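Hello,

Our lab assistant flagged a job as stuck in the queue for most of the afternoon. It eventually completed. Since we weren't sure the result was trustworthy after the delay, we are filing this so someone can double-check. Below is the sequence as submitted and the structure that was eventually returned. Let us know if re-running is recommended.
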Amino acid sequence: MSLLETILESMSSVNQAQRQFIVVVLMGLMCLRGKANFRNLSRYSDYHEKTYSRGFRRDFDLVEFKQLGLSQINLSGQTRIAAMDCSFISKSGKQTYGLDQFYHSSLSKTETGLEISTLAVVDV
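-- returned structure --
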């Protein structure tokens, strides 16, 4: 059983069908190329676009999901910290989503482009 399934089973507000749906959605988002919409998600799974539409109408307690996930990761009692790394990608044009002025640390100035942020858990 994966960590994701363990977390979802410990959530009392999530039934079996919603558990299965959340697993498929999160796995699909990891494989997804391009925009994250129902049509693209349906290309990478066995679910139809309407199934995704219906599934996203149901409430899901994301705060509880994240809290349970963090508590599962820190079972050993060791000290861990969260580390964030922001990277810059230069990009021209006007139609790209998220295009804005960002600080480019290599050049020590702001440039038009995209920012990519990575979050990691570091074992101290």
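-- support follow-up --
The delay was a queue issue, not a problem with the job. The result is valid. The radius of gyration is 18 Å. The helical segments are 3-10, 16-31, 38-43, 49-57, 62-73.
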